[in-house]
Design goal:
The chain is an alpha/beta fold. It has 6 helices and 9 strands. The protein is globular and about 60 Å long. The strands form 2 sheets. Strands 1-3-2-6-7-8-9 form a 7-stranded mixed beta sheet, with helices on both faces. The protein has a two-stranded antiparallel sheet with strand order 4-5.
């Protein structure tokens, strides 16, 4: 038997909320966790104080399946099978989403990618491949993907890495290792541990709000509509 892989065309789903400001705005782009959908991540992004001044985009993973408990359609970013090809497909998909949003709405070349759990790896991959953009990352409950070299990570404008103190999957030691790795790659990074588990909590939203304010201060935004 000979195993081969082949490229094919598929269709993805993303959600967009225009900025509340009157002129071009930065983009806040979200990636959901395993077994979730774009709607869930969109609500997390909308709950971040100050996010209404950004163009909010929530991208849904390409690999959809039914949740056995609820029969809802959910998705996964990838598995270990054909990993490199899946990463390339996902990055091409994200670039197409960003191009489509930029063609539809007035935006500036500033993005914060926000990932939860499995979506964290996508946030870092997208940010380090966002050619022509100033890109930062908010990561919650997931680690920096292993294949990203220091030369790639140093392209980030900044990073906020967060874990819940009782998170059984993203451990305290991994948070410390990710913080160290980012600092060694000359990334401005802030690491936070909140009182919670594997979740996107109110504490996460507050911390993300502060990161957005630093990334693109309100004084730089046009007046609200």
């Amino acid at each position: 038997m000979t195993e081969r892989i082949i490229a094919t065309t598929t269709h993805g789903r993303y959600l967009v909320i225009p900025s509340a400001v009157s002129g071009p705005a930065p983009m806040l782009v979200g990636f959901h966790g395993y077994g979730e959908d774009a709607d869930m991540q969109l609500e997390r992004l909308r709950a971040i104080p100050g996010s209404a001044s950004w163009v909010i985009v929530s991208i849904q993973a390409l690999h959809r399946f039914y949740d056995r408990r609820t029969n809802a359609v959910v998705a996964s970013w990838m598995t270990r099978q054909d990993r490199e090809a899946a990463i390339a497909d996902n990055l091409a998909y994200v670039h197409k989403c960003l191009d489509a949003v930029s063609a539809e709405l007035p935006t500036i070349r500033k993005i914060v990618f926000a990932g939860f759990s499995q979506g964290v790896a996508m946030a870092f991959r997208a940010a380090t491949n966002a050619t022509g953009f100033e890109a930062g990352v908010v990561s919650v409950g997931g680690d920096v993907p292993p294949e990203l070299a220091p030369d790639a990570l140093k392209r980030l404008s900044g990073a906020l890495v967060i874990r819940g103190a009782s998170d059984p999957w993203y451990l305290k030691e991994q948070l410390a290792a990710d913080e160290r790795r980012l600092k060694e790659s000359s990334v401005k990074v802030r690491a936070i541990e909140f009182n919670g588990a594997h979740e996107w909590s109110g504490d996460v939203a507050a911390a993300a709000s502060g990161f957005l304010a630093i990334s693109y201060p309100a004084s730089m935004l046009p007046q609200s509509r």
